[in-house]
Amino acid sequence: IIKNKFQGIVDVAPRVGKSKIAIDAMRKLKNKKVLLLAPFNPILDSWREEFKKWKLDFKGDIINQRSLDKVKISDYDLIISDEVHTLSEHQRNLLQGKKILGFSGSISKKTKEILEEELAIKPIYTYSVEQAIKDNIISDYEIKVISCNLDTRDKYIEVATKKSKFYTTEWNNYQYLDSQFKKFKVMSWRNPRLNNVKMQMASKRADFIYTSKTKLEACKKLINSIDDRCLVFTARTNVADSFDISSYHSKSTADTLTQLCEKDINKLAVCEMTSMGITIPDLKIGIFHQLKSSEENSIQKILRMCNWEDGETAKIYIFQYVNTQDEVWVSKALEPFNKDKIDYISLNKFNYA
Protein backbone atom coordinates (compact mmCIF):
# COMPACT_ATOMS: atom_id res chain seq x y z
CA ILE A 1 0.00 0.00 0.00
CA ILE A 2 2.74 2.43 0.97
CA LYS A 3 4.89 1.49 -2.03
CA ASN A 4 1.95 2.24 -4.33
CA LYS A 5 1.25 5.56 -2.56
CA PHE A 6 -2.20 4.48 -1.33
CA GLN A 7 -3.50 4.03 -4.86
CA GLY A 8 -4.96 0.68 -5.94
CA ILE A 9 -6.95 -2.33 -4.75
CA VAL A 10 -6.03 -4.68 -1.92
CA ASP A 11 -7.73 -7.93 -2.97
CA VAL A 12 -7.60 -10.03 0.19
CA ALA A 13 -9.91 -12.92 1.13
CA PRO A 14 -12.71 -12.13 3.62
CA ARG A 15 -11.96 -12.89 7.29
CA VAL A 16 -8.21 -12.21 6.85
CA GLY A 17 -8.22 -8.78 8.51
CA LYS A 18 -8.19 -6.05 5.87
CA SER A 19 -9.00 -3.33 8.38
CA LYS A 20 -5.84 -4.06 10.41
CA ILE A 21 -3.78 -3.92 7.21
CA ALA A 22 -5.36 -0.56 6.34
CA ILE A 23 -4.84 0.83 9.85
CA ASP A 24 -1.14 -0.09 9.86
CA ALA A 25 -0.74 1.68 6.52
CA MET A 26 -2.71 4.74 7.68
CA ARG A 27 -0.21 5.32 10.47
CA LYS A 28 2.14 6.51 7.70
CA LEU A 29 -0.30 9.15 6.45
CA LYS A 30 0.67 12.65 7.49
CA ASN A 31 -1.50 15.74 7.10
CA LYS A 32 -3.90 14.09 4.65
CA LYS A 33 -7.65 14.54 4.71
CA VAL A 34 -9.17 11.06 4.34
CA LEU A 35 -12.71 9.92 3.53
CA LEU A 36 -13.55 6.32 4.42
CA LEU A 37 -16.49 4.70 2.60
CA ALA A 38 -18.38 1.44 3.09
CA PRO A 39 -21.69 0.10 1.70
CA PHE A 40 -23.41 -0.73 5.01
CA ASN A 41 -23.58 0.99 8.39
CA PRO A 42 -22.56 -2.14 10.36
CA ILE A 43 -19.28 -2.12 8.41
CA LEU A 44 -18.73 1.52 9.36
CA ASP A 45 -19.38 0.64 13.00
CA SER A 46 -16.84 -2.17 12.68
CA TRP A 47 -14.24 0.31 11.39
CA ARG A 48 -14.82 2.59 14.38
CA GLU A 49 -14.30 -0.37 16.71
CA GLU A 50 -11.11 -1.35 14.87
CA PHE A 51 -9.72 2.18 15.23
CA LYS A 52 -10.30 1.95 18.99
CA LYS A 53 -8.90 -1.57 19.22
CA TRP A 54 -5.66 -0.72 17.41
CA LYS A 55 -5.41 2.77 18.97
CA LEU A 56 -5.45 4.82 15.79
CA ASP A 57 -6.79 8.35 16.23
CA PHE A 58 -8.49 8.54 12.85
CA LYS A 59 -9.04 12.21 11.94
CA GLY A 60 -10.88 11.60 8.68
CA ASP A 61 -14.57 11.23 7.92
CA ILE A 62 -16.49 7.94 7.81
CA ILE A 63 -19.66 7.74 5.70
CA ASN A 64 -21.95 5.28 3.99
CA GLN A 65 -21.11 5.40 0.29
CA ARG A 66 -24.78 6.13 -0.43
CA SER A 67 -24.11 9.58 1.08
CA LEU A 68 -21.36 10.51 -1.38
CA ASP A 69 -23.62 13.14 -2.94
CA LYS A 70 -23.74 14.96 0.39
CA VAL A 71 -19.99 15.59 0.78
CA LYS A 72 -17.53 17.76 -1.13
CA ILE A 73 -15.23 15.08 -2.51
CA SER A 74 -12.67 17.61 -3.76
CA ASP A 75 -11.86 18.44 -0.11
CA TYR A 76 -10.26 15.01 0.42
CA ASP A 77 -6.71 13.93 -0.41
CA LEU A 78 -7.50 10.20 -0.21
CA ILE A 79 -10.60 8.03 -0.52
CA ILE A 80 -10.52 4.65 1.24
CA SER A 81 -13.29 2.46 -0.16
CA ASP A 82 -14.05 -0.73 1.75
CA GLU A 83 -15.80 -3.37 -0.37
CA VAL A 84 -14.83 -1.27 -3.38
CA HIS A 85 -16.54 -3.72 -5.73
CA THR A 86 -19.93 -2.47 -4.47
CA LEU A 87 -19.51 1.09 -5.79
CA SER A 88 -22.35 1.93 -8.16
CA GLU A 89 -21.86 3.56 -11.53
CA HIS A 90 -23.01 6.89 -10.10
CA GLN A 91 -20.65 6.61 -7.13
CA ARG A 92 -17.75 5.74 -9.43
CA ASN A 93 -18.51 8.83 -11.50
CA LEU A 94 -18.35 11.00 -8.38
CA LEU A 95 -14.94 9.55 -7.48
CA GLN A 96 -13.24 9.90 -10.85
CA GLY A 97 -9.86 11.61 -10.69
CA LYS A 98 -9.39 10.99 -6.95
CA LYS A 99 -6.66 9.00 -5.23
CA ILE A 100 -8.41 5.80 -4.13
CA LEU A 101 -7.35 2.89 -1.96
CA GLY A 102 -9.90 0.13 -2.36
CA PHE A 103 -10.36 -3.04 -0.31
CA SER A 104 -12.23 -6.14 -1.40
CA GLY A 105 -12.38 -9.81 -0.58
CA SER A 106 -14.54 -10.89 -3.48
CA ILE A 107 -13.85 -8.77 -6.52
CA SER A 108 -14.65 -10.31 -9.92
CA LYS A 109 -12.59 -10.01 -13.11
CA LYS A 110 -15.28 -7.85 -14.71
CA THR A 111 -15.36 -5.43 -11.76
CA LYS A 112 -11.56 -5.18 -11.79
CA GLU A 113 -11.73 -4.11 -15.44
CA ILE A 114 -14.41 -1.51 -14.69
CA LEU A 115 -12.49 -0.03 -11.74
CA GLU A 116 -9.27 0.18 -13.72
CA GLU A 117 -10.99 1.86 -16.64
CA GLU A 118 -13.11 4.32 -14.64
CA LEU A 119 -11.06 5.00 -11.49
CA ALA A 120 -7.52 4.07 -12.62
CA ILE A 121 -7.10 1.55 -9.80
CA LYS A 122 -6.06 -2.10 -10.09
CA PRO A 123 -4.96 -4.81 -7.63
CA ILE A 124 -1.66 -4.03 -5.92
CA TYR A 125 -1.84 -7.13 -3.69
CA THR A 126 -3.84 -10.35 -3.90
CA TYR A 127 -4.36 -13.05 -1.28
CA SER A 128 -6.87 -15.71 -2.33
CA VAL A 129 -9.46 -17.68 -0.38
CA GLU A 130 -7.67 -20.96 -1.06
CA GLN A 131 -4.37 -19.50 0.18
CA ALA A 132 -6.08 -18.26 3.34
CA ILE A 133 -7.50 -21.75 3.91
CA LYS A 134 -4.05 -23.30 3.36
CA ASP A 135 -2.54 -20.88 5.88
CA ASN A 136 -5.24 -21.68 8.50
CA ILE A 137 -6.54 -18.12 8.54
CA ILE A 138 -10.04 -19.07 7.43
CA SER A 139 -11.69 -22.47 7.67
CA ASP A 140 -12.20 -24.84 4.78
CA TYR A 141 -15.69 -25.34 3.40
CA GLU A 142 -17.87 -27.97 1.79
CA ILE A 143 -20.88 -27.03 -0.34
CA LYS A 144 -23.94 -29.20 -0.91
CA VAL A 145 -26.24 -27.99 -3.69
CA ILE A 146 -29.70 -29.51 -3.17
CA SER A 147 -31.58 -29.72 -6.46
CA CYS A 148 -35.36 -29.35 -6.32
CA ASN A 149 -37.96 -29.84 -9.02
CA LEU A 150 -40.82 -27.40 -9.41
CA ASP A 151 -44.05 -29.13 -8.42
CA THR A 152 -46.12 -30.43 -11.33
CA ARG A 153 -49.20 -31.60 -9.40
CA ASP A 154 -50.42 -29.14 -6.79
CA LYS A 155 -52.40 -26.35 -8.42
CA TYR A 156 -52.04 -23.82 -5.62
CA ILE A 157 -50.86 -20.76 -7.58
CA GLU A 158 -53.63 -18.32 -8.41
CA VAL A 159 -53.41 -16.75 -11.87
CA ALA A 160 -55.68 -13.87 -12.82
CA THR A 161 -56.57 -12.85 -16.37
CA LYS A 162 -58.91 -10.10 -17.53
CA LYS A 163 -61.70 -12.63 -17.87
CA SER A 164 -61.19 -15.07 -15.01
CA LYS A 165 -59.07 -16.59 -12.28
CA PHE A 166 -57.68 -20.10 -12.18
CA TYR A 167 -55.05 -22.14 -10.34
CA THR A 168 -51.93 -23.68 -11.80
CA THR A 169 -48.82 -25.62 -10.74
CA GLU A 170 -45.36 -24.27 -10.01
CA TRP A 171 -43.96 -25.81 -13.19
CA ASN A 172 -46.68 -24.43 -15.46
CA ASN A 173 -46.47 -21.01 -13.89
CA TYR A 174 -42.70 -20.90 -14.34
CA GLN A 175 -42.96 -22.03 -17.96
CA TYR A 176 -45.39 -19.20 -18.68
CA LEU A 177 -43.29 -16.51 -16.96
CA ASP A 178 -40.10 -17.74 -18.58
CA SER A 179 -41.64 -17.83 -22.06
CA GLN A 180 -42.98 -14.30 -21.61
CA PHE A 181 -39.57 -13.02 -20.54
CA LYS A 182 -37.88 -14.66 -23.53
CA LYS A 183 -40.53 -13.31 -25.92
CA PHE A 184 -40.10 -9.72 -24.77
CA LYS A 185 -36.33 -10.11 -24.68
CA VAL A 186 -36.37 -10.85 -28.42
CA MET A 187 -38.95 -8.14 -29.15
CA SER A 188 -36.96 -5.50 -27.23
CA TRP A 189 -34.00 -5.96 -29.58
CA ARG A 190 -36.07 -4.31 -32.31
CA ASN A 191 -38.17 -2.10 -30.05
CA PRO A 192 -36.24 -0.70 -27.04
CA ARG A 193 -39.49 0.64 -25.60
CA LEU A 194 -40.31 -2.94 -24.64
CA ASN A 195 -37.27 -3.16 -22.33
CA ASN A 196 -39.43 -2.19 -19.36
CA VAL A 197 -41.86 -5.00 -20.12
CA LYS A 198 -38.97 -7.44 -20.42
CA MET A 199 -37.62 -6.34 -17.02
CA GLN A 200 -41.08 -6.63 -15.46
CA MET A 201 -41.31 -10.22 -16.66
CA ALA A 202 -37.81 -10.94 -15.33
CA SER A 203 -38.86 -9.52 -11.96
CA LYS A 204 -42.04 -11.63 -11.87
CA ARG A 205 -40.07 -14.76 -12.75
CA ALA A 206 -37.50 -14.04 -10.04
CA ASP A 207 -40.16 -13.30 -7.44
CA PHE A 208 -41.84 -16.60 -8.23
CA ILE A 209 -38.55 -18.49 -7.79
CA TYR A 210 -37.88 -16.65 -4.53
CA THR A 211 -41.26 -17.46 -2.98
CA SER A 212 -42.66 -20.74 -4.39
CA LYS A 213 -43.26 -23.28 -1.69
CA THR A 214 -41.39 -26.47 -2.77
CA LYS A 215 -37.94 -25.03 -2.10
CA LEU A 216 -39.21 -23.01 0.85
CA GLU A 217 -40.63 -26.06 2.63
CA ALA A 218 -37.46 -28.08 1.96
CA CYS A 219 -35.35 -25.27 3.44
CA LYS A 220 -37.57 -25.04 6.52
CA LYS A 221 -37.20 -28.78 7.06
CA LEU A 222 -33.40 -28.49 6.96
CA ILE A 223 -33.40 -25.53 9.37
CA ASN A 224 -35.54 -27.47 11.84
CA SER A 225 -33.29 -30.54 11.60
CA ILE A 226 -30.15 -28.62 12.61
CA ASP A 227 -29.30 -28.09 16.28
CA ASP A 228 -26.11 -26.06 15.72
CA ARG A 229 -25.79 -22.33 15.10
CA CYS A 230 -26.66 -21.39 11.53
CA LEU A 231 -27.27 -18.42 9.26
CA VAL A 232 -30.03 -18.63 6.63
CA PHE A 233 -29.95 -16.47 3.49
CA THR A 234 -32.95 -15.67 1.35
CA ALA A 235 -33.94 -12.90 -1.06
CA ARG A 236 -37.15 -11.41 0.35
CA THR A 237 -37.80 -9.94 3.80
CA ASN A 238 -41.23 -11.60 4.01
CA VAL A 239 -39.61 -14.97 3.30
CA ALA A 240 -36.99 -14.35 6.02
CA ASP A 241 -39.84 -13.63 8.41
CA SER A 242 -41.66 -16.82 7.41
CA PHE A 243 -39.01 -19.15 8.83
CA ASP A 244 -39.62 -20.28 12.42
CA ILE A 245 -36.48 -18.48 13.58
CA SER A 246 -35.42 -14.88 14.21
CA SER A 247 -34.89 -12.63 11.19
CA TYR A 248 -32.74 -9.56 10.51
CA HIS A 249 -33.17 -7.16 7.59
CA SER A 250 -33.84 -3.52 6.69
CA LYS A 251 -37.36 -3.69 8.17
CA SER A 252 -36.37 -5.40 11.43
CA THR A 253 -37.18 -3.70 14.72
CA ALA A 254 -35.06 -5.91 17.01
CA ASP A 255 -31.25 -6.16 16.84
CA THR A 256 -31.27 -9.91 16.33
CA LEU A 257 -27.85 -9.78 14.64
CA THR A 258 -26.27 -8.69 17.93
CA GLN A 259 -28.23 -11.44 19.67
CA LEU A 260 -26.72 -14.00 17.28
CA CYS A 261 -23.20 -12.62 17.73
CA GLU A 262 -23.59 -12.70 21.51
CA LYS A 263 -25.08 -16.22 21.33
CA ASP A 264 -28.43 -15.25 22.80
CA ILE A 265 -29.97 -16.93 19.75
CA ASN A 266 -28.50 -19.65 17.51
CA LYS A 267 -30.35 -19.24 14.20
CA LEU A 268 -30.98 -16.17 12.09
CA ALA A 269 -32.59 -15.56 8.67
CA VAL A 270 -31.25 -12.63 6.63
CA CYS A 271 -31.27 -11.18 3.13
CA GLU A 272 -28.21 -8.95 2.62
CA MET A 273 -27.49 -7.37 5.99
CA THR A 274 -24.71 -9.75 7.05
CA SER A 275 -23.02 -10.15 3.67
CA MET A 276 -19.93 -8.08 4.48
CA GLY A 277 -17.81 -6.90 7.35
CA ILE A 278 -19.55 -8.89 10.09
CA THR A 279 -17.88 -11.59 12.19
CA ILE A 280 -20.24 -14.06 13.86
CA PRO A 281 -18.52 -16.32 16.44
CA ASP A 282 -18.83 -20.11 16.36
CA LEU A 283 -20.76 -20.11 13.09
CA LYS A 284 -20.07 -23.03 10.74
CA ILE A 285 -23.39 -23.71 8.99
CA GLY A 286 -24.91 -21.61 6.21
CA ILE A 287 -28.21 -22.38 4.50
CA PHE A 288 -29.12 -20.63 1.26
CA HIS A 289 -32.81 -20.75 0.51
CA GLN A 290 -31.86 -18.42 -2.34
CA LEU A 291 -28.47 -17.67 -3.87
CA LYS A 292 -28.26 -14.87 -6.41
CA SER A 293 -25.96 -14.94 -9.42
CA SER A 294 -23.30 -12.50 -8.18
CA GLU A 295 -19.90 -14.14 -7.65
CA GLU A 296 -18.82 -11.29 -5.37
CA ASN A 297 -21.94 -11.53 -3.24
CA SER A 298 -21.74 -15.32 -2.91
CA ILE A 299 -18.10 -15.25 -1.75
CA GLN A 300 -18.92 -12.70 0.94
CA LYS A 301 -21.96 -14.60 2.17
CA ILE A 302 -20.44 -18.08 2.18
CA LEU A 303 -17.31 -16.93 3.96
CA ARG A 304 -19.39 -15.60 6.88
CA MET A 305 -19.28 -19.23 8.02
CA CYS A 306 -15.51 -19.65 7.56
CA ASN A 307 -14.01 -18.28 10.77
CA TRP A 308 -11.07 -20.56 11.49
CA GLU A 309 -11.52 -22.65 14.63
CA ASP A 310 -9.41 -25.76 15.26
CA GLY A 311 -9.61 -26.95 11.67
CA GLU A 312 -13.41 -27.19 11.54
CA THR A 313 -15.03 -27.21 8.11
CA ALA A 314 -17.88 -24.85 7.24
CA LYS A 315 -20.95 -26.63 5.87
CA ILE A 316 -22.88 -24.76 3.19
CA TYR A 317 -26.30 -25.89 1.91
CA ILE A 318 -27.73 -24.27 -1.23
CA PHE A 319 -31.20 -24.98 -2.61
CA GLN A 320 -31.86 -24.57 -6.33
CA TYR A 321 -34.64 -25.29 -8.80
CA VAL A 322 -33.23 -27.41 -11.63
CA ASN A 323 -34.08 -26.66 -15.27
CA THR A 324 -34.84 -23.05 -14.39
CA GLN A 325 -33.07 -19.70 -14.25
CA ASP A 326 -32.37 -20.48 -10.59
CA GLU A 327 -29.93 -23.19 -11.68
CA VAL A 328 -28.17 -20.66 -13.92
CA TRP A 329 -27.84 -18.20 -11.03
CA VAL A 330 -26.36 -20.81 -8.68
CA SER A 331 -23.91 -22.03 -11.30
CA LYS A 332 -22.63 -18.49 -11.93
CA ALA A 333 -22.44 -17.65 -8.22
CA LEU A 334 -20.30 -20.73 -7.51
CA GLU A 335 -17.79 -20.15 -10.31
CA PRO A 336 -15.06 -18.81 -7.97
CA PHE A 337 -15.24 -21.84 -5.67
CA ASN A 338 -13.23 -25.04 -5.79
CA LYS A 339 -15.33 -27.52 -7.78
CA ASP A 340 -13.91 -30.44 -5.79
CA LYS A 341 -15.66 -29.04 -2.69
CA ILE A 342 -19.13 -28.85 -4.29
CA ASP A 343 -21.51 -31.81 -4.17
CA TYR A 344 -24.82 -31.84 -6.10
CA ILE A 345 -27.66 -33.85 -4.52
CA SER A 346 -31.27 -34.27 -5.61
CA LEU A 347 -33.83 -33.35 -2.96
CA ASN A 348 -35.33 -36.84 -2.86
CA LYS A 349 -31.89 -38.29 -2.00
CA PHE A 350 -30.89 -35.62 0.49
CA ASN A 351 -30.47 -36.84 4.06
CA TYR A 352 -31.63 -34.11 6.44
CA ALA A 353 -30.03 -35.90 9.37
Short descriptors:
353 residues; alpha/beta; 6-stranded parallel beta sheet; 36% helix
List the helices and strands and how they pair.
Elements: E1 8-12, H1 18-26, E2 34-38, H2 41-53, E3 61-64, E4 78-82, H3 89-95, E5 100-104, H4 109-119, E6 123-127, H5 129-134, E7 141-148, E8 157-160, E9 165-168, H6 170-190, H7 195-211, H8 213-225, E10 230-233, H9 237-242, E11 246-248, H10 256-261, E12 267-270, E13 285-288, H11 295-302, E14 314-321, H12 325-333, E15 342-346
Parallel strand pairs: 1-5, 1-6, 2-3, 2-4, 4-5, 7-14, 7-15, 10-12, 10-13, 11-12, 13-14
Antiparallel strand pairs: 8-9
Helix pairs in contact: 6-7
Helix count equals 12
Percent strand: 15-25%
Major sheet attributes: 7 strands, parallel
Helix proportion of residues, in percent?
Answer: 25-40%
Structural class: alpha/beta
- Compute the gyration radius: what is it? 22 Å
What gross morphology would you assign?
globular
Number of DSSP E strands: 15
Poorly predicted parts: none
Would you list the SSEs in sequence order as H and E? EHEHEEHEHEHEEEHHHEHEHEEHEHE
What's the average pLDDT? 92
Distance between the termini: 48 Å
> Strand arrangement, largest sheet?
11-12-10-13-14-7-15
